[in-house]
Amino acid sequence: MDWNKTKTIFIIVFSILNVFLYTMYVNRYNEAKMIEPIGNTDISTRLKDENITVKSSAVDGESVSYISGKVKQFTNKELTSLQNLRIQIINGGTEIQAKITKLSSLPDITDELLSDFVRKQVYKGSSYKLWKVNKKDREAIFFQISDDYMIYYNQNATVKVHWNDRLEITDYEQKMFDSLKSFGEKSTLIKAQRAIEIIFDNGYLPANSTVSKTQLGYSTLVPLTETQVLCPTWYIHIILPKDVNGERKEADYFVNAVDGTIVDIEQNVKGKELEKQ
User: Fold this and answer.
1) Cβ-count burial of 128 within 10 angstroms (0-12 exposed, 13-18 middle, 19+ buried)?
2) What span, in angstroms and rounded, lies between the C-alpha atoms of 216 and 219?
3) I need a surface site. Which of 72, 162, 236, 249 has the fewest CB within 10 A?
4) Using CA atoms, how far apart are residues 172 and 161, in angstroms rounded to an integer?
5) What's the pLDDT at 155?
């Protein structure tokens, strides 16, 4: 056998095989790149066919880490700068109950005035953002934030503000995480449109609905006693179609932004403590 000829043949064969495999890889890569826009177009078409409007969508392409937080233990010493308050620290130091000693009426109950009160009269008040105002029950709920992302419905990261019929803020309760730290590598998140599609495919987005808001935040993944793990989560607010009485109700849904599962947010709220029905 002529070894030099055989060696040359092997080199040619492997070179052809490498070119063939590379061509297959490039073709499959390009096909995969073409599939994504088709999928996005498909959900847009499906929503349009059901007369579902998406009014706004959060910025896609964000990479966010999981975070962990330890429940804060408050001390009287660090609260001395708060004025015109009678403060009690309860539940083993994890909760503040504050009553306003010098009442003053607000011109109206607005998001801006409530947020201003929390910034000025609550310990580290700028660490919270307004979530909901219930004028019937005279209660406003604020959620703690981490890097401007809300922590949704975690009972250890809230401020609840109350007022009377004279529009005087009377008291509030506060809980918070002492330190919130990222851990692990940043995860590539599913897009807001994909989160909407998951809600739609699970039957929670009926025809003639409106998706009025999508927002990225955190929900509780591991609810341990003192230290908790929080996962990036899409919040989707939906305005439902008119019912038989001509009224339009609203609904909130939460989707794990890493694995796409729908988060049962009520598991984090014992007895629906944060939102009265």
Assistant:
1) buried
2) 10
3) 249
4) 4
5) 92
Radius of gyration of the chain (CA): 26
pLDDT (tens digit, 9 = 90+) per residue, 143-180? 999 999 999 999 999 999 999 999 999 999 999 999 89
On whether the CB atoms of residues 191 and 60 are closer than 8 A, the answer is yes
Dihedral, CA of residue 79, residue 80, residue 85 and residue 86, to nearest 10: 80
Nearest-angstrom CA–CA distance, 120 and 117 = 5
In angstroms, the CA 151 to CA 216 distance is 10
Residues β-bridged to residue 90: 95
The range of the structural domain enclosing residue 164 comes to: 73-175
Which residues are paired to 195 by β-bridges?
Answer: none
Check which CATH number belongs to the domain holding 234 and give it. Answer: 2.40.128.690
Three-state DSSP class for 232? strand
When divided into structural domains, the chain yields a total of: 2
Is the separation of the CB atoms in 160 and 140 below 8 Å?
yes
- Say if 195 falls within a structural domain: yes
- Of 175, 192, 217, the one marking the end of a domain is 175
Q: At what angle do helices 192-201 and 3-49 cross, to 10 degrees?
A: 70
